[in-house]
Amino acid sequence: VLFSITHSSRTPNRRRRRHLEHHSPSILRSSAKSPDLKMNDADVSKQIQQMVRFIRQEAEEKANEISVSAEEEFNIEKLQLVEAEKKKIRQEYERKEKQVDVRKKIEYSMQLNASRLKVLQAQDDLVSSMKEAASKELLQVGHHNFFHHDGYKGLLKALIVQSLLRLKEPAVLLRCRKDDLYLVNSALQSAKEEYAGKANVHSPEIIVENIHLPPAPSHHDAHGLSCSGGVVLASRDGKIVFENTLDARLDVAFRKKLP
């Protein structure tokens, strides 16, 4: 009976041993070799849990690395996109700012030109009115009652001398108004002498033409040719002409004042 009990009690252990050898041979072998290092189910479970935790920790760390790397790449790409858009916005702003500056310069230039034109027009109107007033005064200068003829005669002499100095010809042609013919002839000799003294030359020959300058302007013929006085001298061949009438002198004076 004892043998049977002993045999029966060992039989389940052997079956269990064969079962463990089949499912966990490495653990049982180590247990078989070293009885002190036998591992129970709790130790195996604990070791498996440690391995799981280790694997999970590595996976989490790797996932964190991937997440951090992805976030860094995302931030870098986002920053690049933001900077690119900022650059586009700055360029667009600079372009529009330049357009505004160009428009402002154009508008300023147009306003400045308009102001200048107004000023020039005002100056021209003023000069024209002054010239018209001066032309009326010239009628008095060229009138035969001007200082009892002596004043106008002296003016004619000065105009003749000036014309001779400009032409510097030994012989010249002279043209004047028909009304001034007497005064011109009376002033010719003294004018020739004065010119000869100033130019240090012989007295020139002055031929008074029978063709006369237009008469003074009148109310009856306001739009016709007119001359307020003075003389016109030319070389004998007519190639050089010096117009020294009062009207021409007035035009020269006002041309210098024109803007």
UniProtKB/TrEMBL annotation:
<dbReference type="InterPro" id="IPR002842">
    <property type="entry name" value="ATPase_V1_Esu"/>
</dbReference>
<feature type="compositionally biased region" description="Basic residues">
    <location>
        <begin position="12"/>
        <end position="21"/>
    </location>
</feature>
<feature type="region of interest" description="Disordered">
    <location>
        <begin position="1"/>
        <end position="38"/>
    </location>
</feature>
<dbReference type="Pfam" id="PF01991">
    <property type="entry name" value="vATP-synt_E"/>
</dbReference>
<comment type="similarity">
    <text>Belongs to the V-ATPase E subunit family.</text>
</comment>
<protein>
    <submittedName>
        <fullName>Uncharacterized protein</fullName>
    </submittedName>
</protein>
<dbReference type="InterPro" id="IPR038495">
    <property type="entry name" value="ATPase_E_C"/>
</dbReference>
<keyword id="KW-0406">Ion transport</keyword>
<dbReference type="GO" id="GO:0033178">
    <property type="term" value="C:proton-transporting two-sector ATPase complex, catalytic domain"/>
</dbReference>
<dbReference type="GO" id="GO:0046961">
    <property type="term" value="F:proton-transporting ATPase activity, rotational mechanism"/>
</dbReference>
<keyword id="KW-0813">Transport</keyword>
